[in-house]
Each structure stands twice: as structure tokens, then as C-alpha cells.
């Protein structure tokens, strides 16, 4: 459909305006395996999910991919952290902000930030483009060693793992929700295991009707994680009593696991983070339409503009200020730092830019978005009349 295709392209452009585009090639399989006997390893790390029942005849082989402990080397820890980029709700007009950061001297990385529900409601991170695909055909699922350090209410957020099985930049990916345990008294990490069979094809937070099951034979092209107020479902569904604000998820390792007989267990080996393209290299691989539409996307999805809009909303709704009073409040707030003249000039510049952005945005809606919506509705109506399958829109 014309509008759906255009919308997917615009969505890809919006993502590209926040992070590097995604275009991996191919990769040989990982050979690094860690084996933990079920009878002896369970006390150290308690799994929340498992693709099979452990018995005395079964081991769990773990293939670490991203090692944030620094035990192997600090270079490997730095490489693992640098492999990820943020993909927060700024791509849809939100103001949430998160990042995966090193915690110096500690055997973990911190994925932390502030999730706001104003205009969005999720924080996320994903890998940069892999130079070669990850061969996981001999694995059963994804594992993460982690703990929530910011608070003791993990159940008030929706946690998701994401994988991509192709090189597309579309909205559709495979996701699986997982439960995160409350922090243990000794502060140890918990192993979360999510079987590949739990992943479902989604578009945004919504299931794709009749979506095919996850097939990992061709390898994985991307890994990611999301903390959200949206649950996966046929319709857009929000978590009741969602907890916005600050969060801090500490992680020591991300990788893959497999149930194997004891006699087939492998010796432990260090993780080897896959090579990724830099953000600059990934930017050069963007297709021409993305490069052409990127400036337009920045008009629609400016994080600074979104934050100013949110601040204005707070001042007007919670402090009962008029728009002019809120503007003068901003001038006064900056005056102590830069002086009255510079503060006034900066405010005037911001108002001018935001006004121009609004004019351009409304113009594009009239000449581009609205006509495409009309064409899309006509095409959908014709398809329905002919009994053809029609893909649901994000708002249906």
C-alpha cells in the first residue's frame, strides 16, 4: 500500500535521525561456549525462563556474545558497550532518554535513563549494524545476566528482547516480553532466559496478524532490548500502573543458550563481541531516499523541540501559566547563567525556529501526508471489497 510503504520509509528515516541505519551482511557462527551443569550452576544464576526442563542428564551451554564484566579484558568490555546505540521514543515524538554506559571498576554495564510517557513511553537500545550475521541455528534462545538496581518494582514496566532476521529497516521485528526478578538480598545478577519460540512478529507494540514464527536458520541481524509502557498484543495495550521516571538495569552478559546432553558440553570460553560498523560507516550505507528525507524527519522529530513542548505543557497545566508567562519564565531561568540580553535573544531564536518548524510540518501534512492517507484508504477499501488481505494500520 502506498501510504503504508511511505509510512515505513518515514519511520526508517526517523530512526536514522536518532541512530545509525541498520544494514548488516553475513557472519559465521560463534564457537565460544560456556557450559554450566544444571545441578551445580543453578545456585549462582537462577533462570526466569527456560526452553526445556533441566535434569541431571542435561547441561546448559551458554554462548556469551557481549561481555560487560571486563574479566576477559577491558577492551572487550568497551567493545561490547560500544556495540549498542539508543533508540528511545524520540523517534515518535517522545522525550525519554537512555544510554548503555560503562561503570568503571564494576563487572557490569548500566543501561539507565529516564522514561517519560509524554509523547512516547519507552526506552530502548539495539546493536549497531553487524558486519557479519550471527549464526544461532544451534541455539535455543537468548539470555541476559542482569539486575534492576534503581528500584524494586520491575513488574511495573514491560521488558522486551528484540531480534531481527533480515536486513530491512522496516517497523517489523521479532520481540518477546520477559519478567524481571526483584533484586536479591546479596545483590547478585539473575539470569533471564527467553527461548526463540517466545518471539513473535510485531509492528511497534502490536502483533502482526498471521505473522510467521521466528526462523533463525538465516542468522540474526540485530539484537535489542526495550523498557516500555506498552505490552505486546493484537491491539495497542498499556501496562496498568506503569512506573515512569528513572531506571537502571545493570547487565554483566548477553548471549545465547542451548540445552545439551552432559557428554556434549563444551568448556567455558571468553565472549567475543561481533564487529559492528561505526555510526559514520552505517550512515554512508543509508539508501538515497533515507538521506533525502532525513532533514524532513528532523523537522518532525526534534528532541529539543519535544522537550520544550513538554516543558511548556507542564508550566501551563501544572503551574497555570499562560503561554506568555511561560516564555518569560524561561527568559528569567536563563538570565542568571547568560545574562538578560543573551537569554532574550536565545528565547527569540527558539520561538522563531519552532514557529518555522510548525509551518513546515503543517504544510507537509497538507500536501503529502493527508493525500497519502486518502489514497491508502481507497486502496484498502478496494482490497476489502475484493476479499484481499489488508494489513492493519498501527492505529487500528
TrEMBL record:
Gene Ontology biological process: NADH dehydrogenase complex assembly
Alphabetized UniProt keyword annotations: Signal
Record flagged with keyword Ribosomal protein: no
Pfam family, one: CIA30
Limits of the NADH:ubiquinone oxidoreductase intermediate-associated protein domain: 77-241
Domain of life: Eukaryota
Signal peptide start-end: 1-21
Gene Ontology molecular functions: unfolded protein binding
PANTHER family: COMPLEX I INTERMEDIATE-ASSOCIATED PROTEIN 30, NAD(P)-BINDING ROSSMANN-FOLD SUPERFAMILY PROTEIN
Family: Belongs to the CIA30 family.
Protein's name according to its UniProt entry: NADH:ubiquinone oxidoreductase intermediate-associated protein 30 domain-containing protein
Organism classification: Eukaryota, Sar, Stramenopiles, Ochrophyta, Bacillariophyta
Amino acid at each position: 500500500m502506498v501510504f503504508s510503504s511511505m509510512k515505513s520509509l518515514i519511520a526508517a528515516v526517523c530512526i536514522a535521525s536518532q541512530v545509525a541505519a541498520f544494514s548488516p551482511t553475513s557472519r559465521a557462527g560463534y564457537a565460544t561456549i560456556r557450559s554450566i551443569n544444571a545441578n551445580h550452576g543453578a545456585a549462582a544464576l537462577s533462570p526466569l525462563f527456560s526452553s526445556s526442563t533441566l535434569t541431571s542428564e542435561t547441561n546448559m551451554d551458554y554462548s556469551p556474545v557481549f561481555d560487560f564484566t571486563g574479566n576477559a579484558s577491558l577492551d572487550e568490555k568497551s567493545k561490547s558497550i560500544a556495540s549498542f546505540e539508543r533508540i528511545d521514543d524520540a523517534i515518535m515524538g517522545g522525550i525519554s532518554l537512555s544510554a548503555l554506559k560503562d561503570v568503571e571498576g564494576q563487572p557490569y554495564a548500566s543501561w539507565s535513563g529516564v522514561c517519560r510517557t509524554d509523547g512516547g513511553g519507552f526506552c530502548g537500545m539495539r546493536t549497531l549494524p553487524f558486519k557479519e550475521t550471527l549464526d544461532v541455528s544451534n541455539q535455543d534462545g537468548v539470555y541476559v545476566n542482569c539486575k534492576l538496581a534503581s528500584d524494586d518494582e520491575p513488574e511495573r514496566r514491560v521488558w522486551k528482547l528484540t531480534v531481527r532476521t533480515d536486513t530491512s529497516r522496516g517497523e517489523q521485528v521479532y520481540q518477546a516480553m520477559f519478567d524481571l526478578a526483584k533484586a536479591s538480598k546479596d545483590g547478585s545478577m539473575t539470569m533471564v532466559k527467553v527461548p526463540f519460540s517466545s518471539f513473535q512478529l510485531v509492528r511497534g507494540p502490536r502483533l502482526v496478524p498471521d505473522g510467521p514464527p521466528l526462523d533463525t536458520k538465516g542468522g540474526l541481524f540485530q539484537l535489542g532490548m526495550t523498557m516500555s509502557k506498552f505490552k505486546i498484543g493484537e491491539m495497542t495495550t498499556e501496562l496498568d500502573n506503569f512506573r515512569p521516571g528513572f531506571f537502571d538495569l545493570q547487565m554483566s552478559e548477553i548471549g545465547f543458550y542451548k540445552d545439551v546432553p552432559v557428554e556434549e558440553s563444551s568448556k567455558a570460553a571468553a565472549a567475543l563481541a561481533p564487529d559492528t560498523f561505526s555510526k559514520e560507516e552505517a550512515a554512508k550505507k543509508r539508501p538515497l531516499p533515507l538521506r533525502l528525507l532525513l532533514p524532513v524527519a528532523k523537522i518532525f522529530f526534534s528532541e529539543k523541540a519535544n522537550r520544550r513542548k513538554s516543558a511548556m505543557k507542564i508550566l501551563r497545566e501544572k503551574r497555570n501559566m499562560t503561554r506568555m508567562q511561560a516564555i518569560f519564565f524561561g527568559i528569567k531561568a536563563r538570565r542568571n547563567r547568560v545574562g538578560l540580553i543573551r537569554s532574550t535573544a536565545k528565547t527569540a531564536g527558539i520561538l522563531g525556529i519552532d514557529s518555522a518548524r510548525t509551518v513546515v510540518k503543517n504544510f507537509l501534512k497538507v500536501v503529502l501526508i493527508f493525500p497519502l492517507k486518502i489514497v491508502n484508504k481507497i486502496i484498502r477499501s478496494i482490497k476489502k471489497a475484493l476479499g484481499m488481505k489488508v494489513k492493519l494500520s498501527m492505529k487500528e
